Amino acid sequence: MLSLKEFLRREVKPALGCTEPGAVALAVARANQELPLGELKSIQVVVSDSVYKNGLAVVIPGTGGARGNALAAALGALCGKPGYGLEVLKDCTPQDVDTAKRWVELGKVRVQCDPNQHDVYIAATVKKGTDWARCVIAGDHSNIVEVVKNGETILRSENASQAADLLFQKIKELSYPELLKLVEEMDAEDIHYLMKGATMNLTIARAGLQEGCGSGPAFGRKMQQLMHEKNLEGDLGYLIKSLCYAAADARMSGVKLPVMSSAGSGNHGITAILPVVLVGEKTGKSREEIARALAVSHLSTSFVKSRLGRLSQVCGCAIAAGAGAAAGITYLLGGKLEEMQEAMQIVLANTAGMICDGAKESCSLKVGTGAFEAYLAALFALLGSKTAIPQGLLSPSIEQTVNNMAELSQEGMRDLDRVIISILEKNFHSPKLCEGNNNLQKEVEN
Hints:
Layout: H1 4-11, E1 14-16, H2 19-33, E2 42-47, H3 49-55, H4 69-79, H5 94-105, E3 109-113, E4 121-128, E5 131-138, E6 144-149, E7 152-156, H6 160-172, H7 176-180, H8 188-208, H9 219-229, H10 236-252, E8 258-260, H11 266-282, H12 287-308, H13 316-332, H14 337-351, H15 363-382, H16 398-412, H17 416-427, H18 440-445
Parallel strand pairs: 2-3
Antiparallel strand pairs: 1-8, 2-4, 4-5, 5-6, 6-7
Helix pairs in contact: 2-4, 3-17, 4-5, 6-12, 8-10, 8-11, 8-12, 9-10, 10-11, 10-15, 11-12, 11-13, 11-15, 12-13, 13-14, 13-15, 14-15, 14-16
Pfam families: SDH_alpha
Protein name: UPF0597 protein QBE54_08500
Organism: Thermatribacter velox
């Protein structure tokens, strides 16, 4: 049986920077932990297509704008602390960054994509002298399923593939109404934790509104400028959009502040949390009422993600977290289960087909879109709007609609990541490191 506390512990946790390079750094740091101090020989990492795509060119926090999985891997060995989880690089210094860049330039660090691996998969091998250690993360971004040193197994899940997917399997076994019953288990500890996440994400949003914050396009700050010029500062929808823009602006341009994630993604966390909190504050809801609505939002986000997968061809920020936030806002404003499901259907009808083209600063646009459309969908549902079902991808049940979205992503867009990665490698003049090779891991160990 799934409990609310287990759900929150696994699905809602702090993350620093984009979670894919963060997970790469975590895997390297955990492998490095097994080795003695000494000169680095090499770091070799094999990742899935989705991890490769999302980490190829995203800014790493605290690096002054430096990008990419290879830099994250180097930093994982230099200053990464596995005990910090997805905040593994929070002790990173400018000296560490300089050394990491030098290692990458010298060819000591190699991150290669195995296109036969999908979703979250990272196998990091660190070599020092004659010693080597490998750490494998699979299923979710902090799920370490194997640690090996010099051929000796230090840690291994009995069934790594099942262990990686266990939580999502539990969620998939429940209907949407059954999953939402977990909210009834909420206690004071859960309320405190959920509101801690709200504070965390509001903090980075406010940082993103400051002049000179990060290196990105500052859509949040520009949005608030437009709101002032057009006399729209009192509009809650535009406020939601501007603060979600700002939080993602800051996060994706490398500002060294954590966010509370949802379903394995910091940007999902921004979308799932901020609209609910802002509506709650605007309408005078209590701390407990907002926390309960946040639990609904996180649960609903993971309900969608459990079908789509941790990493998908479509944008989970707008689709999964947008649907989650719509349900949370509807609940917060007094909507019943039927209206919450209708709000989710409206978001899914609206955002179906929005692709994920890798992690980068302009992700803030999709985060803002998902948050704004979640707010509108909740209002539409509360006004009694109903989509004529079935139509398009929409089916009579929210379960079947989400399954339809998963089929679109996994079957209809099967080759999308390969095409996007090819385009990204051309854009960044990167060598082609995402070729089919079933012997990648053996090559690494040799």
